[in-house]
Amino acid sequence: MLYAILKLIYRVGLWVFFKKLEIRNKELIPNEGPLLVVSNHPNTFMDPVVIAAQLQQPVYFIAKSTIFGSSLQNWLLQRMHLIPIHRREDAPGQPVNNDEAFAASFKALATKKTLIIFPEGNSFNERRLRKIKTGTARIALGAETQSNYSLGTKILPIGLNYSAPTRFRSNVFVNVGQPISVADYAQAYQSEDAAAILTLTEDIKQQLERLIINTPTEEEDELAKQIETIYKDKLIDEPSPTQEQEFVVSQSIVESIVFFSSKAPERVAALKEDIKNYLLQLDTLRLQDSLLGKGKSSILRHSLAAVLFLIIGFPAYVFGLVHNYIPYIIPAKVARSVTKEKEWYAPIMLTVGIFAFPIYYTFMAFVFWYWFPLIPSLLIYLVSLPVSGFFTLRYWSTLNNTHGQWLFLRLFFKRGSMVQQLQRQAIINELEQAKQEFLQERDAAKSQSSIAPTKTDLF
């Protein structure tokens, strides 16, 4: 009962917290167990919430034992379907015993339940898959062995891709992979269990790597993000691309960086330096790259329309600001006071916001009722609170964008030569040339291996 209530609350919370939550291949998700869902783990508590919200059936979570404590706390966490597992890093130098966790997992799968496991073990806000542990394979194969391989257990890999993991109203792309049948590894497990566990673990790893933006190093990830900022709109010829399209392009950008880093590292180094200098120039001029790709007339036209919107919408903005600022700012303040680990910001903000907004709206409703005790007026007022909150966010975003546009226009007319001297076009030309070379090499490799290009190859 507690799980069902929390799931409903968090589903609503996710709809508010994220601007876009897109799921790819949702039809691949089984509606019943026995099922082991495995995923990368970039955003702590937010990750299981996002995944569980996409599944129709109740799910059980393999969680680190350090979050368990008092009897009341343990009882509450068990009602929320958490199964504790002990990790060596939580108790260095002490023996680790997970017999109870494995027994509970075996029992859950035997009764056709669904488990969520994050095989990396720890959560880090990175666009890469860290070394994954063998626990998932051991649980899956162990449960099947106990039932003489009659369960039909599946392992479902899911890749979580956040546009800005710590930011409110950002995007998340949930990428579902092909389910893995544990029975396919039964014969190998019976012959040599350790080798079969490693094989299954490696197959899980390879699937997850294909479902996320997987950059080898932090330096290459930074370069990939910079190229995305400058060049991604050139690779997607649509005004409102889907997250799937953006994901495929980002994957191709990372692949090309890896390709050129091994083939022509000096070329990559030169590109890094050019982009670094260009971004420093933008920062000095307080400009955004997105503006430089548009013409002056287009920017002027959009700026005038935005100014009209800002003037007409100002009263609604003030109303929304007054009625939403406090519950909006509280979650961020709480998150930053509770922890310095950015991986925890989003889930804390989501959880605090789930309570802050309803409590504040209820308080404001009592105040409104005191002065205007009319039910129709009260209902209209209550509806206006969240609507005005979203409007205020849009208004603020428009205000910031318009400020940047007017700054660009002022600089262009006053110091046009400086703006024109920015090396954006030279960088884009280099990226275009690199794209053509990369595509030729990739097509040649596919031709040699008799693999035809797929419709997802956008880069």
Structure description:
The chain has 459 residues and is α/β, with parallel strands linked by helices. It has three domains: 2-211, 3-Layer(aba) Sandwich (Glycerol-3-phosphate (1)-acyltransferase); 218-285 and 423-448, no CATH class; 292-420, no CATH class. It is built from 16 helices and eight strands. The chain has helices at 2-17, 46-54, 71-79, 99-110, 135-146, 186-191, 193-211, 218-235, 243-263, 265-285, 289-292, 296-338, 345-371, 375-414, 416-420, 424-448, and strands at residues 20-24, 35-39, 59-64, 82-85, 114-117, 154-162, 171-176, 180-181. Helix 1 crosses helix 2, helix 9 (243-263) packs across helix 10 (265-285) and helix 12 (296-338) packs across helix 13. The protein is flat. It starts with a helix and ends in an 11-residue tail after the last helix.
Give me a quick take on this structure.
By secondary structure, the chain is an alpha/beta fold. It contains 16 helices and eight strands.
